[in-house]
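User:
I study polymers; will you set down one protein's sequence and backbone structure tokens?

Assistant:
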Amino acid sequence: MPRPTTPRLSPERIRQTGLEIIDADGLEALSMRRLAERLGVRAASLYNHVATKDELLQEIANGVMAAVDVSGFDADWATGLRIWTRSYRAALAAHPNLVPLLATGPDRRENALQRADAVHGGLTRAGWPQRYATMIGASAKYLVVGSALASFSGGFPDEPGLYDELPHLNRAHLLREHAAEIDADSFELALEALIAGLRTLHGQLTWAPDGQVGAQPR
């Protein structure tokens, strides 16, 4: 009789299956044993492709970051920020259970480091000093990660009676029904406010004789 075939493993199949487990049940649900069971192999077989669970998580996160688009910085810094943050938010929204890991920083993830480098480079080429480029990148990330971690509108229960004693929230029970729209529009409002403020700041920056950056008096 022919020998039973062993499912072929590949790094991509391992990463994709691991991501499916995380998407369905959260970060803590992923284990090498459960992953092996899902793939139909022995756990020992996985270690021919990935050394540890932590390494696997980093590879999964690195794959998700590949979807983040930083090409807009070739146009101008504001376009770059819009495209980068919107695609970043979309990548996180597609895999919300992975957000706590992605929010910790680029670590040694190649795709994350390359995108951080592209963002920083795009900002400094546009005339932003190094320190400001770093702070702008951080500020934009706070906006993206914060919007991906939780839904503002979805946090209001759709129980009209709950707000009877709260005259300024008398329509808050309607928010949950429109949560996705409100959350998306709120992200856009914050993003455009950030860019508008940065445009003003960019026009005020001036180089001092000692090489330091200051702001023009208003």
Remarks:
- Residues 56 and 110 are 14 Å apart (CA to CA).
- The mean pLDDT is 90.
- The radius of gyration is 22 Å.
